Amino acid sequence: MKKKYLILFVILTFIFDANAFSQQKSVSKMEYRALLHRNDKLPIVFNISESKFGGKRTWTIRNAAEKLVADRIIEKGDSLLVYLPFFDGMLLLKKSSTGYEGVWNKKTIKGDQFMPLTMEKGNKRLGLTGPVSRYNVTGRWKVEFINPDLKRSIAMGEFKQVGNKLTGTFLTPTGDYRFLEGVVAGDSMQMTTFDGSHAFFFSAHIKDGNTLESGIYASGPTYTEKWTAKRDEKMILDESSSSFQLKGKANKLDFSFPDLDSNIVSITDERFKNKVVVIQIMGSWCPNCMDETAFLSKFFDENKQLGVEVIGLAYEYSKDFLRSKKSLSYFKNRFSVKYPILITGITSSDEMKTEKSLPQMTEIKAFPSMIFIGRDGTVRKTHAGYAGPATGIHHDQFKKEFSEIVDALLAEK
Fold first, then answer.
1. Which of 33, 97, 173, 300 could form a disulfide with 242 if both were Cys (CB 3.0 to 4.6 A apart)?
2. Reported pTM
3. pLDDT in tens, 158-178
4. Helices first, then strands: H and E counts in the chain
């Protein structure tokens, strides 16, 4: 009888302890609408999903299909310091009656940038209201941007509208504007994004099924451009303005730079001989470089046994090695990069950056860019810019062309 009660006591104790542990480790979730404040009141809005597990707080920044996880959050009293996963940025916040308020701090080549930020509970994004639009803007558009100096540039818009929900992006010769999310109502459309580096707002008047007019593009605290667009399903983006290639009679590269552990790595090292090598021109400040790094890291893991190597050449905001190492380490760790990332010690804004690092090449005009090297060590092809996953069919086309280039080089003896 005593043995029976003892067993019952042990079972009850276990159940109690399990319940207590479960409560301690329970998950709580919260949705926030975050708004970056500009003086002109244009709403740069994004969404945050918060989860708390065992006292640990994690934020997921959401833009369309993209989810960026910020899990390094320091909480002290009613204040939060949220380190953004990339681009050397952070959110400095204090609790408010509706959620949080504070600033977004971003490191730039000109110094620290601060932008006021408020967060309120809820999962709404943009407040555009009105009847369902008579037109659907899904498809490809030829876009003309006009900057404050009245300089015009051509881009490609790729939009997808389902009901009043709108997603898409803009492609330029040097890359894309990544994941945009918004809404269509009546004769108006709006889209926004925030990824720690980009903070964009786009709006336009839908004149008819083939014309967008009175467009506004706002970036960061103050910058603004105008834009218009015409539907053009056959448009092909002219990328010649961003191209670069070998110059003179040169056919090989010759460089040596330290990796993140201060080890000198040279393109002439034994590791790279008789192999196909992809040189990645990149920087930790560059959102398109983040997308490209994710692609190249996966590619390298799956193909290195075939005789392929990848080298990242980083051009940072600062010449300081330790600062550059810190920023680049986020990229390396986030995407489990196993190929060497080298710190050139040359800033991305240096007008002589190509001459100082790759004197055999014409000017580097786009971040990111790629250089393909054959088994014989000669430069065989270059590619400027990167069409990331937000571009859909264009990203698929890039991956196809990339594979064709590498496969052709690997087939050479």
1. 173
2. 0.88
3. 999 999 999 999 999 999 999
4. 5, 25
